[in-house]
Design a protein that fits this description.
Elements lengths: L2 H16 L5 H12 L12 H6 L11 H15 L7 H19 L26 H16 L4 H36 L7 E5 L6 E7 L3 E8 L10 E4 L10 H10 L3 E6 L2 E6 L3 E2 L2 E2 L2 E7 L5 E9 L9 H8 L6 H8 L5
Antiparallel strand pairs: 1-2, 2-3, 3-4, 5-6, 6-9, 7-8, 9-10
Helix pairs in contact: 1-2, 1-5, 1-6, 1-7, 2-5, 4-5, 6-7
Pfam families: YdjM
InterPro entries: Transcription_regulator, YdjM-like
Keywords: Membrane, Transmembrane, Transmembrane helix
Length: about 350
């Protein structure tokens, strides 16, 4: 999730644990702890792909965060002894904030290395990386806690319950769409071996569906509010890796994306795209792996670079209409608005 949400979640948890001792300092400490795991973004692993796939690594590991939280708690109690803030209470706060950070990240589409140093990326994809309906109640609880000593902790506790229920709603909505997708794939004779269902920006009502096959992938949209259960899928070629040599970063990207990858040539550049994040041709993670020389041969890059994808918010109004169940705009949305006519 975004940094604002993680900080807000950390502050809200801290306020809930603090109870009557909830104050601005406690909320600030929770916010700082809530953003701590994301400081790994300052690390440079040498190239754009490595920086992407190694994010949410050791700083998000459920094998490392609890002992690290206990160490922080011991250090705090060692140098700032307090009758109320016992080692037990401080430990509950620090462990809760750090662990919920990585668990919330694992509910997005990006992928989180929950058991680092062991291999594996985990994601439930039941919430978008930015969702106002999740974040705004947390911010509201923090505001109440800053101005009300008697109601602050209770608001934090209540909003934590509400936010957890919202995550549960996201998962339930995803399963509802998954059942609909399964029926559509069978009716349209499409493959069902590798299917991704993930929310579109800022909501859990409109869902993006990606269906993989050997040579093509299909992309469609499905809203909880649709009256027609049919999903209009658009097929696109997957492309293939054209070189004999496969760099280690490509294998890493395959693992990171669970092989939801697309290969294409554009302006004499070999571009590899992660199909999970973004929509249509507005994909978030695209990398230039090779360039053609004057003879037309591919020259593998020493270090893959980020491809400057054009992403913006100009299509949000169209997505809003589609979210409300207007399926008549599907063709325009997938083929033109999202850049399918490249």
């Amino acid at each position: 999730m975004d940094s604002v949400t993680q900080a807000a979640l950390g502050a809200t948890i801290a306020g809930a644990v603090a109870g009557k001792q909830c104050n601005a300092k406690v909320l600030l400490a929770g916010a700082v702890l809530g953003t701590l795991p994301d400081l790994d973004v300052v690390l440079d692993y040498g190239d754009a792909v490595s920086n992407t796939i190694k994010h949410r690594g050791f700083t998000h590991s459920l094998l490392l965060l609890p002992p690290f939280a206990l160490l922080l708690s011991w250090l705090y109690c060692r140098f700032r002894p307090d009758a109320f803030w016992s080692f037990k209470r401080v430990s509950v706060l620090t462990v809760s904030v750090l662990v919920t950070h990585t668990l919330l990240d694992a509910m997005t589409t990006y992928g989180t290395q929950l058991i680092w140093p062991f291999e594996g990326y985990f994601e439930l994809r039941n919430i978008f990386i930015i969702d106002p309906l999740y974040t705004l109640p947390l911010l509201m609880a923090i505001i109440v806690a800053l101005f009300s000593k008697t109601m602050g902790a209770r608001w934090c506790q209540s909003v934590l319950l509400l936010s957890t229920l919202y995550l549960g709603w996201g998962f339930a909505a995803q399963q509802y769409i998954a059942n609909r997708v399964e029926h559509n794939l069978a009716a349209q004779n499409l493959p069902n071996k590798q299917v991704m269902i993930t929310p579109t920006p800022f909501n859990t009502v409109l869902w993006r569906v990606v269906v993989m096959d050997d040579d093509y992938y299909w992309e469609g949209l499905a809203s909880i509010l649709d009256k027609d259960t049919n999903i209009d899928f658009l097929a696109r070629p997957l492309g293939a890796w054209p070189l004999e040599e496969k760099p280690a970063t490509l294998e890493g990207l395959k693992a990171f994306s669970h092989n939801y990858l697309n290969y294409r040539e554009e302006n004499d550049s070999l571009i590899v795209s992660d199909l999970r994040l973004g929509m249509g041709n507005n994909l978030s993670f695209e990398f230039v792996y090779a360039e053609r020389d004057e003879a037309g041969n591919w020259i593998l890059a020493d270090a893959p670079q980020r491809f400057p994808s054009q992403r913006g918010f100009e299509h949000l109004s169209t997505l809003w209409e589609r979210m409300k169940g207007d399926q008549s705009i599907d063709a325009n949305l997938t083929k033109q608005t999202l850049g399918y006519n490249r």
